[in-house]
Design goal:
single chain, alpha/beta, seven-stranded mixed beta sheet, globular
Amino acid sequence: MRNVEPIRWTDEGVVLLDQRRLPGEVIYLTYTDYRELAAAIKDMVIRGAPAIGVAAAMGIALGVSHSRAKTLPELRAEFKNICDTFARTRPTAVDLFWAIDRFTRKFESLAQNAAQNNFDAIKDSLVEEAQQVHRERRDADEAIGRFGAELMPASGRVMTQCNAGALATGGIGTALGVIRIAVETGHTLEILVPETRPYLQGARLTAWELQQDKIPLTLITDNMVGHFLKTGGVGAIVVGADRIAANGDTANKIGTYAMAVLARENHVPFFVAAPISTLDLSLASGEQIPIEQRAAAEVTHVYGVRVAPEVNVANPAFDVTPAKFIAAIITERGVARAPYEDSLSRLAAGAQTPAAR
């Protein structure tokens, strides 16, 4: 998977691996219009919080690079509209808003020095910034993997949830990056992969990634999680995150909270792996994290085939795991432990922490 790119910038446009078609087909789509790229994020052609951040960065750069604005006020108004378009795509993934904020600050800095009615420097700089975001994502994954690998058992089973691999980040993955580097450094692991209903990211994406890397795995249904945590010799759980509040409460794919509670009951350490960009220290707790509600058809249909009658449907895409269930949060700057208000704020400020158990 180190050779599989879910997203890349090219002279022709932004190229995405269509994750909706996996594992049956490997199809790449090229986007030349930022609105179409925003729709691709919303429609889950690309998904996973860090990868959404990369896609938003590239989408903003794409939109500005194609701008025909004649004056700076026109370009500024167009830039705001581009950012607003991406902000409406996936509300829970904070990396999306991190990218928008980063590009807003970059745009204003460039605008102050722009030659009158000549915006080539702004366009070129935003394209370079988007590529820099992608490079930083890949580097962060490698660092998260190194820190997290030290927390994995030397042998045995590790459980994960949803897909926090290369497909979700543009690098080697957060949770799967930890697993990949653990295996590369001599750990003998088998990965338990819940299917992750209703969108089946575990069955379709995580299982596919691990198979590509020849890492042993066992696919299970979501309602088997408790059984295997009680009887299956699971040594650790490692998951990704879509937003982490200042107190360590973590939003991740629906089902993560139940997994964490069951892990505590069965004395299995539960780890979160995520980049610093996933921290949202403006939120005191997970109660303030917005939870995306997705279409009923994702629950009532499988690959277009109805599997339920026409009834009322709830389909929250994420849930929030309270910090008390999390043994540690693994970032590219080190490992945070409780009290998270202190450790996360230090990491966000740039301080390094040891990865010791």
